[in-house]
Amino acid sequence: MTKRQCGTSGHDLAKAVFAGTFSFLALCTAGRASADSLDVTTATTAPVTTAAASGGSAGAITVESAGSIIVTDTQPAITINSSNAVTNGGTIGSSAATGATALLIDGTSPITASLTNNGVISITGTDGSGNYGIRLMNGPVSGTIGAGSTSSISVLGTGAYGVSIESAFAGDITLNSVSVAGASSTAVSLTASLTGNLRLTGSSSATASGDTGIALAGDISGSVVNAGAITVGLASTTTTNSSGTTVAAPGVGGVAGISISGNVGGGFVNDLFYTDSSGNVVANASATSSDTETIGTIIGYAGTPAVVIAPSASTPRNISLSAYGTAGTDDGYGFINRGTITSQGNNVGTAATAVGISGTTVDGTLYTTTLVGGLTNQSTGHITASTTAATAIAIDLGAGAIVPTIANAGAIQASDAAGTTALAAFGIRVGTGAELDSITNSGTILAKSAATGIAGYGILDESGLLTTITNSGTITAQALTSGAAARAIDLSAGTTAQTVTNSGTIAGDILFGSGGGSYISNSGSFSGTLAFGTGTDLLQLSGTTAFANPVTVASGGALAVGLSGSSSLQFSGTAPSLASLALADQSVLILNVSNTASALQVSGAASFTGQSMIKLNIEQPGSRTFTILTAGGGISTDHAASLLGSTSTPYLYTLQSFTVGANDIEVTLHQRTANEAGFVANVAPLYDNALISMAEGGAAFTAIGSLPDQASVLAAFRQIAPPSYGTALARIAEGLQSTGFGAIAARMHGLVSEAPEEIAEGNRLGIWAQQGVEFLHHRDAQDDPGFSSNAYHLNFGLDYRLGRDFIIGSAVNFSWTDVNSDGSIGTDGKPLKTNTQLFDLYASWAHGPFYLQAIGSVGHDNYRSRRTITIGSYSADQSARWSGYRVAGDLIAGARFRFGRFSIEPSDSLTYMRLHQNGYTESGTGVLDLVVDPQRITSMTNTGKLSVNYEWPMFGGALSLSGRGAYVSRLKRDVGALDASFAGGDSFALVSAPLGRSATQEGATIGYHFENFLIAVSSDRRQEAGFSDTSVSAMLRISF
Predict the structure, then answer these.
(1) For the ranges 93-97, 336-340, 711-715, 980-984, which has the lowest average pLDDT?
(2) Residue 1032 counted as domain residue
(3) Which residues pair with 636 in a beta bridge?
(4) Range with the poorest average pLDDT among 62-76, 293-307, 747-761
(5) Last residue of some domain: 164, 180, 196?
(6) Residue after which a domain boundary falls, among 157, 173, 196
(7) How far is CA 845 from the centre of its chain?
């Protein structure tokens, strides 16, 4: 088509003869009728048609970027009613409120139309209804409808349509960013057939009540691909009312994000793809960080389902979505999700379904929906539903849905944040009347809910037709409310054979139907209850599978068990009766043994070949003989002598003997004594009495009884021992007392060491303060648990000088200590905390170089133990609080000899402390809780010390540096017995290893004093075999 510029004919007429003038005009008119086009470069309100594009003749219409056609009435701004093209780079629209149409494609006369929208198409009237952005009618019509990436279509008013295809159209349609905002509106509607493909890009939305994003009722020969973002409804939020108060604004729900009720010959794809800087599509596997990712997104708010596929009730018929790609490939499915499909309940009590596929029943006839090839959620795909106190379903197959398989390599998730009975979450739900043969999962299927009752289902089949589930990914059902159930897979409605094959992870119960169920695990992980129905059932384990779960078999069911590879089987709780049992290779059968546990019953044959073996899980203490397995069909093995052995029992037991008979296997067990178990005599009573306390078994004993070696058994009983057992509290008390006495001694030493000429008559009253930190570390021993502690001390003192030789004073000491005991786990930080308050009286006498010092102290101690007992799979929090008191004294004699700026000071001290701890009762673990009696600990030490000091006159005062060394002899070192008992049991005594015989000590101080002011920093370290005590302190003294 060319443009004719007929405005130059006036010059020709000036030269022409009269007859020639008429001939020229006729020629010009004919040319415009066949080839003229219209360029709109400015704003106009006049409607135009392609049939009379320019001067009444048919032609193309182009709206340039600066141009616009915005009409004010119901007449379309542009009508395509001839085989010509319309290209929009500007704005096409209407300001009319009701019955407005921005662009009409009218096929009254058969046409081939081309529409390319690179600009804006809009209806801006807000108060009316029945408006259209693009409307195609009176067809059939052929051609193309395309859209650029920056284009948009927006329509206001109720009952509106962004795009409405109402007549058959042959050609591809691409739409970008179509939005409607009035109630009961539809962004894109197709009610007639489309011979071609439909592609959606950009950001499309339908945000009012009753809106639909994409409604496809007509048949489509090609594919439907969403490569944009489709949002339907509004999420709940808050707003401000007329009085300025913030109030909740509930979410607004629509009909569907995408609704398909017709046939789709090329399948449906919610896409994800990459493009390079030139806009070329890049294969996902080849994409780099420089490429742009486009994710197809469909979001339904306030309970709007994201995707609904079902026949229309008004024109019912069977529909199908054929495969997008070749069968057997990743694209050989009728429904493909590579992007994100989400439905949110938003409002409390509003249910949500992300993908709903079903048939439609009209007048008793069920019209079906078939997904040829099935549904796939690929590795980049996410299908999610979330609610609050309402049912959430990620994928829901209703009656009449025919889906051969669901293949998931991405994420399928449903969650209910809060709920009550029956408000469950479903990852995949297959309803009664739906047909789904199999599910293959290599991704994640998750259902979690706060509902009571049955909270969540990873996969629920109510149809009874789902027969095969293959999992190499993760299937999880999670109950967020204590006591609620969670079912990973529920096939209980089935009446034919069903198989679950697992090489991944399944968390939650698995239920089979009445036609016979098979659970086959090849190195898979499973946590939950495995419930078989009636029929012939199979539990087959191979690879590295470690199965230790409850198993139930319905009355009439017959369960065969087979193990191979290095798999292991332990029935948690009561073991079911088996039809047959076969172990091969290095597989292991773990049998529970107790006074109440029956032998494993096998009605048929039991065989053990290869290097298979039996291990025992002891559930009650004691030595006795048990029959552990009975097989009515006989027992066969090619290695009877090694079927059980030293590794068959946990550490606390030895296998004295066993026999493999024709139909029975019998074992005799010996429980190790404390000495045989490796306990030293001081700790043996704890072992003996703990086993008595756990005589009835239970979780605690099962955990201890299953420990495999001596180290883990000793570690378990270390956790059970009272938190006050050992020398830890005595050493901490000694350290605090030493720090307090040291602070006072340093204060008195500073006073009595002053030369007579330095003592000012007015400086009789002195106050001082000292703060410090102390770090203790003790090496672990079986009868003296190791520990490390961090303490903070704060001292305040007041003293008075009586003449030149005598001083009296008092002090208070506050201390806080965190203790990390070896082998203990703190529930909220350190397992043991102490705090102490001391009150001290002190006096000092000095004459010449010689001095005597005496200190008396009383104090109050508080103790808090909060620890988590963790033994194997057993875990419980245990706590206790108690208090105590102490009295202590220190007597020091020494002398200070001056040699100019040097001084040497030998001294000797005798220190006494008596620590009393009140009794206490532990709580939290039941059978492992101890009642601990009061305990008294007395210690006495003698310390010989030598100090060397040097002073530098400086700024009218003196800077001093001192170093010291000491040898500590312990005169009384026994901690004494700690009497305790388990609840309801006899008392027993635990004796700790004594305190060390001797220790060495070294330290240094740097300080500065000036007239009546002194500041000093000190560090001391005391150490003995396996123990160290390091302290750092700072002192401030002021005299008046």
Answers:
(1) 980-984
(2) yes
(3) 607
(4) 747-761
(5) 196
(6) 196
(7) 68
